[in-house]
Amino acid sequence: MKNRSSRKSNNFRDEEIMKALEEVAERLSIQVHYEEMKAFEFRVEDGSCKVKGSPSIFIDRRRPLKEKISILARELKKFDLEDIYVPPLLREKVLLPEAGHPDTVAQGQSATGDNVVS
Predict the structure, then answer these.
(1) Is residue 31 a contact partner of residue 56, using CB atoms and an 8 Å limit?
(2) Residues 28 and 76 sit within 8 Å (Cβ to Cβ)
(3) I want to staple 30 with a disulfide (CB 3.0 to 4.6 A). Which of 14, 22, 25, 78 is the partner?
């Protein structure tokens, strides 16, 4: 039973992290889209691009929450975060560059991180 409550609290924490990342994207005027990537006629991967000149981040909505967090954090790191408020814990634990840390790269992503859709 302890394991279930701990799992629930981790999910709640993950949901809070995701919400905070989405708020950071909003402060940067970045649109975050959750789409079913397989529905397109061509292969599309999660990542950032510009749509009609505005920055956007696309994430496959079928991915688990932890992968969505990893992808959104990875893409937000590409933008200048110095001039906006980012909660300190989020900045330290999620957005600081961690080269080679396995939790920062989502499953199915290239090792180079070149997942920009244009």
Answers:
(1) yes
(2) yes
(3) 25
DSSP state of 45: -
Cα–Cα distance between 61 and 58 in angstroms, integer? 9
Tell me if 59 sits within 8 A of 106, measured CB to CB: no
What's the pTM value of the predicted model, to 2 decimals?
A: 0.71
Distance (Å, rounded) from C-alpha 91 to C-alpha 112? 22
Residue-wise burial string across 53-69, b where 16 or more C-beta atoms lie within 10 A, e elsewhere: eebbbbbbeebeebbbb
Q: Where are the domains of the chain?
A: 2-104
CA distance 52 to 64: 29
